[in-house]
């Protein structure tokens, strides 16, 4: 186990362990991480050692979120369940919400390498106080993700066209007609709602299908759902 501090420094008791799984740390970066950790002893390893005595914070540093890497993290989290150590995923690039599921497997947080190098002491202090740390921009992502999962099992009441996504593709009449199609209305009902002649509605739908590359009304709905141009109201 390689420490950035001298073995003669006996005043330091708490250790910060970084597992550089993808071997992406340079000497300069390692030194910045050491400074960011304040009075904690910083240790950098290529794999997780068996002896974690006095290791209070453990970071899995990864560069790419490959299947192999994530499977390795799952295995490590399983082994660390009985340890009294804060475990976090640290990413070289900006972390994504796809790491959230690991929070349910004993993970204490997600942080980027850059964030730690500038606010390392604050990260460690937050862990000591609350037992968890997420970069600020991830808070909203997590709330949104939880809300989506909460609503997932509720029935869809209505599909709403995201007009901003098609404002340069469809005309106003085409957008309105498309929304009425999403609402399940036939041509005659759409004509009544829009105060148009049925023939005009048929012409608008014909132009609409051509722009979407759809064969019929049902295919048009499938196309815009696939493109992500609708929101589901539950």
From TrEMBL:
<keyword id="KW-0804">Transcription</keyword>
<protein>
    <submittedName>
        <fullName>Response regulator transcription factor</fullName>
    </submittedName>
</protein>
<dbReference type="InterPro" id="IPR000792">
    <property type="entry name" value="Tscrpt_reg_LuxR_C"/>
</dbReference>
<dbReference type="GO" id="GO:0003677">
    <property type="term" value="F:DNA binding"/>
</dbReference>
<feature type="domain" description="HTH luxR-type">
    <location>
        <begin position="163"/>
        <end position="228"/>
    </location>
</feature>
<dbReference type="InterPro" id="IPR036388">
    <property type="entry name" value="WH-like_DNA-bd_sf"/>
</dbReference>
<dbReference type="GO" id="GO:0006355">
    <property type="term" value="P:regulation of DNA-templated transcription"/>
</dbReference>
<keyword id="KW-0238">DNA-binding</keyword>
<keyword id="KW-0805">Transcription regulation</keyword>
<dbReference type="Pfam" id="PF00196">
    <property type="entry name" value="GerE"/>
</dbReference>
<dbReference type="InterPro" id="IPR016032">
    <property type="entry name" value="Sig_transdc_resp-reg_C-effctor"/>
</dbReference>
């Amino acid at each position: 186990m390689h420490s950035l501090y001298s073995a003669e420094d006996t005043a330091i008791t708490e250790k910060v362990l970084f597992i550089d799984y993808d071997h992406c740390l340079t000497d300069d970066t390692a030194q910045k991480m050491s400074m960011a950790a304040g009075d904690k002893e910083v240790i950098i390893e290529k794999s997780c050692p068996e002896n974690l005595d006095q290791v209070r914070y453990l970071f899995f540093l990864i560069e790419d979120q490959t299947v192999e890497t994530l499977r390795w993290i799952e295995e490590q989290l399983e082994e660390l369940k009985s340890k009294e150590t804060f475990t976090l995923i640290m990413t070289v690039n900006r972390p994504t919400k796809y790491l959230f599921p690991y929070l349910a497997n004993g993970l204490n947080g997600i942080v980027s390498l850059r964030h730690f190098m500038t606010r390392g002491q604050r990260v460690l202090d937050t862990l000591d106080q609350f037992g968890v740390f997420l970069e600020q921009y991830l808070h909203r992502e997590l709330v949104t993700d939880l809300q989506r999962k909460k609503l997932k099992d509720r029935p869809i009441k209505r599909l709403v066209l995201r007009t901003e996504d098609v404002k340069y593709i469809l005309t106003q009449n085409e957008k309105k007609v498309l929304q009425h199609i999403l609402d399940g209305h036939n041509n005659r009902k759409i004509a009544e709602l829009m105060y148009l002649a049925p023939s005009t509605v048929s012409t608008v739908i014909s132009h609409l299908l051509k722009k979407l590359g759809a064969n019929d009304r049902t295919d048009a709905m499938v196309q815009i759902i696939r493109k992500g141009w609708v929101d589901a109201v539950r």
